[in-house]
Specification:
transmembrane helix, single chain, elongated, MFS_trans_sf, membrane, Major facilitator superfamily (MFS) profile domain-containing protein, mainly alpha
């Protein structure tokens, strides 16, 4: 979605500045939620629950993006992005904590 979003928005008539701004908002939202999402998964003790919720949130935002217009595009972009980096952070944490993998093999 990251590389395609500005092109898609320009294709449906958005100005270059607005399309690129939507991508910047997407990245900002994603960045602000990543660490709190991992901390929440620690607090709840269930990383899989957080991953499932993140997948549903991201899928909802992407799905909305295909059917909404105008200002609702901004909302759908934020919804799609809000859990994206958090999902990856929780996934990497799960991989690192997997017995036999650890930090040496996780990257």
């Amino acid at each position: 979605m990251i590389g395609y979003l500005p092109l898609y928005l320009r294709g449906i008539g958005w100005t270059a500045a607005s399309a690129d701004g939507a991508l910047a908002a997407s990245n900002s939202a994603s960045m602000m939620v990543a660490i709190p999402m991992v901390l929440l998964s620690d607090k709840l003790g269930s990383r899989k629950t957080i991953l499932l919720a993140a997948m549903l949130i991201t899928a909802s935002g992407v799905g909305l993006l295909s059917v909404v217009g105008g200002a609702m595009v901004w909302v759908s972009v934020i919804i799609a992005s809000i859990a994206r980096d958090g999902f990856m952070a929780v996934t990497i944490t799960m991989i690192t904590e997997t017995e036999g993998v650890g930090a040496a093999y996780a990257g």
